[in-house]
TrEMBL record:
Its EC number is 5.1.3.2. The lineage of its organism: Eukaryota, Fungi, Dikarya, Ascomycota, Pezizomycotina. Pfam families: Epimerase. CDD domains: UDP_G4E_1_SDR_e. It comes from the Eukaryota. Keywords: Carbohydrate metabolism, Galactose metabolism, Isomerase, NAD. Residues 6-281 form the NAD-dependent epimerase/dehydratase domain. Mutarotase converts alpha-aldose to the beta-anomer. It is active on D-glucose, L-arabinose, D-xylose, D-galactose, maltose and lactose. This is UDP-glucose 4-epimerase. Pathway: Carbohydrate metabolism; hexose metabolism; Carbohydrate metabolism; galactose metabolism. It catalyses: UDP-alpha-D-glucose = UDP-alpha-D-galactose. Transmembrane segments: none annotated. The keyword Membrane does not apply.
Length: 373
């Protein structure tokens, strides 16, 4: 008997697929909804290869409320949702803002409406550290605690703040309305998880980030420089007030991040807290040059880079104060940025075509041997 059944939107994407895997490994049943806009259904096969269990998969759009209704109707055991499905390119969000608001905010509203019709009352939401914007505008806000005032500096970040607000208003209204009507209300709960910089891949080397277009995150781009698919990395801004002039981020291994979702979901189910926001980060900041150095070390040679102008909307330092998640959720990062570099390189080196190729036989053999242990 499953611990619970979770609908994972965006579950064939990078973080969603790792979270679906972790849920299955911990006794949950998983139903994925994804429109494959930025992912491949091969992720479902890889999840099964690693853990021996297969999530149910529906190709559907989160903005399509009727399609979501049909998924909930067919799977009445679903009791919680982890909501990843979104557009996430910061630069693009400034070019096509209506599309970002339609998919990210509109999709979240359709999901909440459908959940409510089907009495599904727990939601864990993928928010982002970008909701804080430039935390150096306040004294003593680095590392960033959840109490730091929000102030996103780009459209993508503004969609995340809006969704956090919509979820908060809806969950609070459900609790208040039920309370007034003398009905149980504590079942309505939400976790707003503000991720810092997710990175890395599965240690087996057969599952990792496989975006459909050009990646824009630092480590996947470095991966492409290492395989020769790109000539060099562009470093945006070397005049920040950091030790080497480049921007500081808090890199969190995707396996740790996935585990954080499980901890948050358990907290909602056990403690029924209403709406809570938690930072998911390591608390350790690394500059862009430090990441280039760490990844170059794993690859075994210096990777070329070129300095470019700062990007609009970028901020100096996004490093998490993770104490609240550490204490309340009993969750803490176990892996380092260096571990993430190693795992990423194992994935990229062995699967230069991502999910458009079969994984190397020796990695599959090693996985089989590990599973037989
Ligand atoms: N990767 C990061 O750096 C990062 C940081 C903070 C927050 N997040 C958030 O985490 C979530 C997952 O990010 P990711 O890095 O795994 O990205 P991703 O693009 O790999 O995953 C998102 C998934 O959502 C799907 N999707 C997009 N639009 C959809 C729609 N209309 N209907 C159904 N599915 C749709 C995509 O196909 C993809 O599989 C996103 O909400 C993102 O904003 C990511």
């Amino acid at each position: 008997m499953a611990v619970g059944t979770v609908l994972v939107t965006g579950g064939t994407g990078y973080i969603g697929s790792f979270t679906a895997l972790t849920l299955l490994e911990h006794g949950y049943d998983v139903v994925i909804v994804d429109n494959l806009y930025n992912s491949s259904r091969v992720a479902v096969d890889r999840i099964e290869l690693i853990c021996g269990k297969r999530p149910l998969f529906y190709e559907a759009d989160v903005t399509d409320e009727a399609a979501l209704d049909a998924v909930f109707a067919k799977n009445p055991a679903i009791d919680s949702v982890i909501h990843f499905a979104a557009l996430k390119a910061v630069g693009e969000s400034g070019e096509i803002p209506l599309e970002y608001y339609r998919v990210n905010v509109g999709g979240s509203i359709a999901l909440l409406r459908s959940m409510t019709k089907h009495n599904v009352t727990n939601i864990v939401f993928s928010s982002s550290a970008t909701v804080y914007g430039d935390a150096t505008r306040f004294p003593n806000m680095i590392p960033i605690p959840e109490t730091c005032p929000l102030g996103p500096t780009n459209t993508y970040g503004r969609t995340k703040v809006m969704i956090e607000t919509v979820i908060t208003d809806h969950i609070e209204a459900q609790r208040n309305n039920n309370k007034k009507a003398g009905q149980p209300y504590e079942q309505w709960n939400a976790a707003l998880l503000r991720y810092f910089n997710p990175c890395g891949a599965h240690p087996s080397g057969i599952m990792g980030e496989d975006p459909q277009g050009v990646p824009y995150n630092l480590l996947p781009l470095l991966g492409k420089v290492a395989t020769g698919e790109r000539d060099k990395l562009l470093v945006f801004g070397t005049d920040y007030a950091s030790k080497d002039g480049t921007a500081i981020r808090d890199y969190i291994h995707v396996c740790d991040l996935a585990a954080g979702h499980l901890s948050a979901l358990s907290y909602l189910r056990d403690k029924k807290p209403g709406v809570r926001a938690w930072n998911l980060g390591s608390g350790r900041g690394s500059t862009v040059l430090e990441i280039i150095q760490a990844f170059s070390k794993v690859v075994g040679r210096d990777l070329p880079y070129e300095v470019a102008e700062r990007r609009q909307g970028d901020v100096l330092d996004l490093t998490a104060h993770p104490a609240l998640a550490n204490e309340e959720l009993g969750w803490k990062t176990q892996l380092t940025m260096e571990d993430a570099c190693k795992d990423l390189w194992r994935w990229v080196e062995n699967n230069p075509k991502g999910y458009r190729q079969d994984p190397p036989a020796e990695l599959l053999e090693a996985l089989k041997a590990k599973r037989a242990e």
